[in-house]
Amino acid sequence: MSANYTFDVVVIGAGGAGIRAAIEAHLQGARTALVCKSLFGKAHTVMAEGGIAAALRNVWKEDGWDVHFRDTMRGGKLLSNWRMAQLHAQEAPDRVLELEEWGAMFDRTADGLILQRDFGGHRYARLAHVGDRTGLEMIRTLQQKAVALGIEVLMECTIQRLLVDDGRVAGCVGYWRQTGETVTLRAKAVVLATGGLGKAWRITSNSWEYTGDGMAMALEAGADLIDMEFVQFHPTGMVWPPSVRGILVTEGVRGDGGTLRNSTGERFMFRYIPEFFRAETADTEAEADAWYEDKKNRRTPDLLPRDEVARAIHAEVRAGRGSPHGGVFLDIASRRPAEYIKRRLPSMYHQFKELADIDITKDAMEVGPTCHYAMGGIRVDADTAATTLEGLYAAGEVAAGLHGANRLGGNSLSDLLVFGRRAGLYAAEYAKGRPKQAAVDRAAVEAASRRLAEPLERKTGEDPYAIHADLQEVMHTLVGIIRTQADLDEALIRIAALRERQTRVAAWGNRRYNPGWNLSLDLEAMLTVSEAVARSAAMRTESRGGHTRDDFPKPDPEWAKVNVVTRKRDGRLELAKEPLSEMPPELRDLVGEQAKPHAESTDMEATVPAGKPV
Amino acid sequence: MTARSGSNGGARDVTVRVWRGEDRASGGFVQYDVPADPGMVVLDVMFRVQALRAPDLAVRWNCKAGKCGSCSAEINGRPKLMCMTRVSSLPEGEPITIAPMATFPVIKDLVTDVSYNYEKAKTIPAFRPAPLEPDGTRRMYQEEVDRVQEFRKCIECFMCQNVCHVIRDHEENKEAFSGPRFFVRLAELEMHPLDTHDRIELTRAKHGLGFCNITKCCTEVCPESIHITDNAIIPLKERVVTEFYDPLAWAKRRLFGQRPRQLGEKEPAAPSDR
After folding, report:
1. What does pTM read for this prediction?
2. CA dihedral (B49, B52, B55, B60) positive or negative
């Protein structure tokens, strides 16, 4: 029943980060496999809509890596790993241009360069995009590049356990979804690019794949996680009808001129401008509207970072000023011409028309927060993407650090490329320095295979779908946007009870393409990461970014100096506070004050008056 | 059994007949009734069936937002994405019939083996860009990009492949025919303003463009409304004709001793007009 394969580098996950890592490892000469749970090209990246943030300076010459760095650090509420934020801002433009070399077709400026759009928390229009289907363009480009290079892709293969030998990674064990057969992959280095954990929440923009499996596997193998308390609720998910609740509505709607209103018609975001962003945020509707055309004005509060907007919507609904189905209104119909909306936001137009009978060129959308992104995840070295387990690398949403307490929109796609490439590069380099494969621990492979078989062997037991639904309810109601100690304590008690039920989970049928069986195995990871989130959230007694405590509503400067680290030791999760690394003074200066416009001049710059879009 | 008749504590029910089995010969339709919600799509109904009736029902899906193209099936005989098909859009009072795509081998239930498509994808030579502009940039204009972006909208749901009668009813044609999805891909590369590779002979000889007799079945089922026939296939056919069957071009070749370009052969270098 078990197949074995041997590679230099195994990349687990084939979204943007995984494919980019595999391309790089392959280009470095490593024998590389790319493993994915779904068909190739279907990963979560495909759902990214608005764009990819990179200071290309095609629209605003005043932009630059330093401004992007500053925006990222401030958006992350100063908890981002400064070195990751620096590398990300510096390398993102090259990664975007590289996609163009591989066949990507971004929307264009009038003079034929890559067009960039406005997004929350970004000082300048910075997001390279293709209408509102940027993720599709990105994954297809990477997919086609990987195919052209002849990289081996193992599709519909679910990895469940990492193998470790003498303190370093030795491979992984999983199963083929199509047959249910066990598969063992030996590797000198493994890159985790498995994405996030949103499927543990009831209202989410995430697909079934987002079970936290990469984080749980890393934890199990001995690697550290950090920042698990920071979960991003995207402010604008669909709220009606019930079956589409949580489906993403791109921030590009606001980037392109849409505004949030409550049931009284008020543009309520003006009442929710936090002190931290006051100096750079417009406080009148006139200035906010003028900002789209002229960046000498301050940014509209509709485009405050996502954590701020999600909390504001939550508060409006609580105060009884919500829309009929428990959200608020997102209005672009009254602010932009129908043709413009259809051209800029074709999938949003289609999505609302098909699924909600709403014509967004005529009527306002109803939107509310939806669980969207994990800022936390596997702790990595900024330059090499190495985890704390030798031979194991991580990139993309599964890794932590770049986004700190809150991710800016558009920074995830650039994250995938910048750190996907770095993970592939350094994994290949590590593999080169290891002439021999590590030994495979037969007992560990046996244990992993036995675990796979158990749910199907139980004649009676707990229903995996019921456990999953109960977990989603717990996380949604007790570990949501607003948290309290009492709720988190209650959540941990309930998660423990669910974990006990999970040990008795029973699946029906055989191993061939069996979603019930697959889910019964995924529950373990979902429960582990849920516990890590709830415990980290209980530990951080302050409010910052994607972590809001009703009982500690203010940020605490002391907490700005530490990450909450989660480890698994002797079968139990252990948490610790550990200090952030010290930011060099020259970078600290960038974050603290307005970043300076670029001094160097280009031939284009002469024709561009400062403060006007090109 | 009537679809969506009330029998679940006040909640309406929806009745589905789902094809189940591990091979075409032994499989068949099984009927399930599950509670319905307002606005439900067919994929929601499948989740209900999994949670309440048949936990091992095989369904392939990812985004549930019409963006990944994983959940293609034949709903009441028509190829559709399960995630974008509202229950309310289907005839009331009748069970909804859901079957796997017919052109591909069944793995289990609604999940088919679509590896044919992944194999064909490997046979298309990759994008090969022209040199950079003298200023180190790449310039393309929105008008040129628009045409190609239509093709880049493809979500690889493979429903165009599924309805194409060249392969739907003729397994034997699969080897010599790549199907509408890959004509879209070829057209996209052919019309890419920066691409330098010529794939026209390949399109004719290896991908079987000539099999297509433009019945537009592919265009009709495309969930992204790509004009597959008019904008991709017909222009490709025209280019093949110009290259290989144009009598003037033929005469010119005879006169000057030229031959038609062969597989993968580059276009003769043209002076740059940039």
Report:
1. 0.93
2. positive
